[in-house]
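Hey, can you fold this?
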Amino acid sequence: MRPTELYIGLMTGTSLDATDAVLMDFSATASRHLAQVSEPIAPRLRQRLVDLNHTPQIPLKELADLTRTLGEQLAAAANQLLREQSLSANEITAIGSHGQTLYHAPDLGMSLQIGHPAVIAKHTGIQTVADFRIDDMALGGQGAPLAPAFHQTLLPEPLKTQTCALINIGGIANISLFRPDQPVLGWDTGPGNALMDEVCQQHFECAYDAGGALAARTEPDAALLAHFLSDGYFAQSPPKSTGRDAFHQNWVTTYLDSYQGPAPSPDTLLSTLNQLTAQSLADALKHVCGENLPEQVFVMGGGGFNQTLMQRLQDALGSRTQVRTSHALGLPPEAVEAAMMAWLARERLAKRPIKLASVTGAQRDAILGGVWQP
């Protein structure tokens, strides 16, 4: 008998490597990941979006075109998932879509995502839930990260008596921190994979550092690492959030230009950026937890496949912390963010507030997102 509560989650992510569509079943007590597809983003569309990370200025006509074009790309991924699973649109309760963040401005109380949900709804024939950040921001919150509320549903009961962290390493990295009898905390720590990906594309003729093999060839430059870490964002206490409009190739160039040491080789730069992601994550946990670091850390996102990054994170946190991927929680690392979108869609249709006020600094928890009909 086919499950009766099926949702699709859509995510492009800050790394812009592909559009992920995940099929989730929420009809049982525990959610189940059933299937997923990953559709490459058309090169021209990807380049236009990457350029906006570097220079967040755009004519209104181009903004409108991108909003529709990405909506069509997201709808195509959802339709491909339906075809592969031999499902019809009327068997899916809803689609949850994050869209692509172009500009995230907590100081203004606004965050702009494109990939219009009306286009997705009309092109798939499935009601679509989207624009999840703005409700929190209207209440004074950061609007990010959204992940902690969903991450909490992934923890089995035995782990709820321990201090645990779930870390997403996409283009930007973020932490969800769970401690017994304390409010959930979550915040963006800074760069994830995106800066490393750009170095690979510029110097190594590859999209990303598969397994972290390139970064493993050279030791990081400790002085350059310290220089990168002098950015004021790393010292801020949560709640805080950031995005690719802050950490991008021009950010790296600016710090390299002001660096007093010798210019790093591409190998050394890549290795140092790898260490930057690991060190900034570990430093963030130490800043909040002190000596009581999490006993368990679960990594998701593309960073979970970077073995060099995983080992450096383990080394930075020490032997008292066990670092594993989200496979240990029953969800593939590459599926977690899109699965979260499916879950947020379900919660929106049920009109349940998402427990994020302790994470984002909002005045209260809020129902997140809007609904677009097919």
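Oh, and this one too while you're at it.
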Amino acid sequence: MSEARSKPRELRRARRSSRHGCWGHLVVAPLWVAYDANLGTLLRTCDAVGACLAVPSTPHYRRALAVGDTLKGRRPCLHWVAPSKEGWIEAERAAGKRLVAVELAEGATPLPRLGPAREPTVLLLGHERHGVPDDVLARVDECVEIPMAGWGASLNVAVAGSLVLYRLAGLA
């Protein structure tokens, strides 16, 4: 005699009974992302790990999120970055948040050694081709590198951001 298995919908209801709102503990900031699809994917990852998404208040980002929002009305916390990215980053630092960037850099922490965020943290994600600007990298607390075995120079920004978010959230 086999036991009845719970349906995925029932499991979701039991395990994820409420939205996270804004806890402010973990914020992903893809401030230089070019491709619309990456923003929708990151929004979904933020929902999965209980993080907030911070994006520039520009027509490009608003349009990309409107198209890529598959959560339809149940989206996670969203912070609009204005008027300047640099000003917002400095305000986050002044508020005591740790700044982490995903980037190949001298002394970067390999992803497998990255521990969960123990303090309010902002994860900065760069442009798909150019990465995080050098002047911003010079001011971050930590860079995270994702080890790769293949020939590619980097992962898609939404994939890279999702991998690092799961580690920072303590879920991987």
